[in-house]
Amino acid sequence: MRQEQGTPDGELRYRKVAAELREAIIAGEYAAGTKLPPEGTLAERYGVSRGTVRHALAVLRSDGLVTSRRGTRRTVLGGPRAQSFSELLSFTNWARSIGETPGGRVDSVVRRPAEPFEAGQLGLADGAEVHLVLRVRTLSGEPVMVERSLYPARIGELVAELPPDTVSHTEALVAHGVLFTDADHTIDLAWADADDVRLLDCPPGQVLLRERRRTTDPEGAPVEWSEDRYLPGTIAFTVHNSVAASTLGRHHSPRGGKG
Amino acid sequence: MRQEQGTPDGELRYRKVAAELREAIIAGEYAAGTKLPPEGTLAERYGVSRGTVRHALAVLRSDGLVTSRRGTRRTVLGGPRAQSFSELLSFTNWARSIGETPGGRVDSVVRRPAEPFEAGQLGLADGAEVHLVLRVRTLSGEPVMVERSLYPARIGELVAELPPDTVSHTEALVAHGVLFTDADHTIDLAWADADDVRLLDCPPGQVLLRERRRTTDPEGAPVEWSEDRYLPGTIAFTVHNSVAASTLGRHHSPRGGKG
DNA sequence: TAGTGGTCTAGACCACGCG
DNA sequence: GCGTGGTCTAGACCACTAT
Questions:
Q1: Which of A187, B18, B127, B180 could bridge B237 with an S-S bond, Cβ 3.0-4.6 Å?
Q2: How confident is the model at residue B254 (pLDDT cuts 50, 70, 90)?
Q3: Are residues B72 and B26 located together in one domain of the fold?
Q4: Chain A 222-251 residues in 7 Å CB range of strand C
Q5: Is the pLDDT of residue B90 over 90?
Q6: Does A259 contact B at CB distance below 8 Å?
Q7: Which range marks the domain in which residue B233 is found?
């Protein structure tokens, strides 16, 4: 049997199906609150197997576009859009996705031995060399965020060689073959220190929205650790989650329901 | 062919495999940075098909426990990180998961026509009746968060009938058969208003960490809209994301703690 | 009872990483 | 070249929802 593993033009089938369904939903062909056709019908319509349709629908589900429930057809949710991996990964990608013009100015680059906390975050031995880059990031020229990025030596050397006007260090690293596949983010509040006050032109002690991020490659090797501090009112993080998306072996037994 | 759809004791196979692999990783059997056995080997070991093994591994992947990459075996990333849907959904569940004692005091319950924004969030017609509950939430008796929850009439009526000392409104609703399956979260900053100042005992204009959340049932019908405002230093939200999925969680950070 | 999504199987071929 | 994960198929049974 023929199964040429993707359409003739090189697209993967499940992605193609997902893309077409996504467009149909956004275009209003499937309005929020209405039901999607059954998997079997979609499989026939797109000329793929049911498994491939399910793969496509899983993508839409994890994006929060549709729900699913055994026994009934899938329901179309509104147009909620969680931030994609690349938008969460890089200030530049995020800014572009909202139609803004990102910018940045490097304030300082330091090359020094890692402190214990830093070594831990990057999975290095105490005292291993790290590169610390302090940058102020702008939207349409206005400072909105201070970024403190820490790189292990092998990555830092690439960063150090970038042209000073490079807007996206992340994209430049990707172009150099560095892979970013997983990231852990922590979001909370922080108080402006002297650097923040100077670079963001805000009052001392100003409360800022802080995002700390640790990014790894497919091998689990840390490639970047960063602490970003945003002025109030400049950013909001959005996330979608569902019972099905993050289900794990957490079975709550019978009906011991409490109030 | 045999395919009894789950083990004899009623467990789903892919969950069982996922759970065993998770425990093995946490127990250190598969150390961080090492490789997992090939899918085929795992399939043989657990007596399931390769598809089921892949399903299990997809769960672990979306929890950030392992990565994957074509051509090489999966890499173990590290300990447990992701939090369950219910921990994210409810302050009570979250507090318990970190070993804290959650509490709450209802400040006011209002029943009135929805304003345009509220109607939009709950998918109701302008002026439809909604229930607004204002509560202060505590950890070990200390106020840490002000919660403004908005319910459509059919849900609000259930909430209104709850005993005044009900700690978890969410759990009570679940016990009444209300289904929570999807949530969209927005995290940013807000400034304390008069209610916040009064209930949290903080200075006027204090910057707070704000989480707004819209929760829907499997049909996509909104069941709750909530705006929660946390004192600085009391909470941190965590997100894990990868090219495949992202999971949001929240963590406790001791008051006044530094980063 | 019919329809639908959830689970599972047993194959197959493809694309990538590495020795 | 070979091992590995990624994609895809065709079919099956099960669990749940709605009629």
A1: A187
A2: very low
A3: yes
A4: 244
A5: no
A6: yes
A7: 85-252
Please tell me the distance from the alpha carbon of residue A90 to that of residue A94, in angstroms, as a whole number.
6
d(CA A133, CA A258): 51
**Where is average pLDDT lowest: A133-147, B128-142, B180-194?**
B180-194
- Model confidence pLDDT, tens digit, residues B216-232: 888 888 999 999 999 98
Picking from B76, B105, B129, the residue at the C-terminal end of a domain is B76
| Judgement on whether residues A67 and A186 belong to the same structural domain of the protein | no
Query: Count of CB atoms within 10 A of residue B114's CB?
Result: 21
Q: pLDDT tens across A150-189, in order?
A: 999 999 999 998 988 899 999 899 888 888 888 888 888 9
Task: Choose the closest CB to B186 out of A236, A249, A250.
Answer: A236
Q: Which nucleotide is nearest to A54 (CA to C1')?
A: C5
Which pLDDT score, from 0 to 100, does residue B2 have?
A: 40
Mean pLDDT of B123-133: 91
Q: How far is residue A204 from each of residues A136, A143, A232, B231, B258, measured CA to CA in Å?
A: 17, 16, 14, 19, 17
Q: Does any domain span residue A169?
A: yes
Positions in chain C where some atom is under 7 Å from a protein CB: 3-18
Per residue in B51-72, pLDDT (tens digit) is: 999 999 998 887 778 888 899 9
Can you tell me which residue has its alpha carbon closest to the C1' of nucleotide D15?
A70
**CA dihedral (B75, B77, B80, B86) positive or negative:** negative
Task: Tell me how far apart the alpha carbons of residues A240 and A83 are, in angstroms, rounded to a whole number.
Answer: 9
Amino acid A249: pLDDT? 19
Touching check for B122 and chain A: CB below 8 Å?
no
Separation between the CA of A66 and the C1’ of C5 (whole angstroms): 13
B15 within 8 A of B9, measured Cβ to Cβ: no
Does any domain span residue A174?
A: yes
Distance A100 CA to D16 C1' (A): 47
- φ, ψ dihedrals at B115, nearest 5°: -75, 165
Same domain flag for A75 and A105: no
| Strand nucleotide closest to residue A50 (CA to C1') | D9
User: Residue A252: CB partners within 8 Å, gap ≥ 6?
Assistant: none
**Residues in A 55-84 with any Cβ partner in B closer than 8 A:** 62, 64, 67-69, 72, 75-78, 80, 82
- A83 Cβ partners below 8 Å, 6+ apart? A94, A97, A237, A238, A239
Neighbouring residues of A238: CB distance < 8 A, sequence distance ≥ 6: A81, A82, A83, B184, B185, B186, B187
* Residue B116, CB-side half-sphere exposure with 13 Å CA sphere: 0
Count of structural domains, chain A: 2
Whether A93 and A67 map to the same domain: the answer is no
The answer on A167 and A118 residing in a single domain is yes
Q: Which nucleotides on strand D sit less than 7 A from a protein beta carbon? A: 3-18
In this prediction, the residues of chain A whose per-residue pLDDT falls under 50 are: 1-4, 80, 246-259
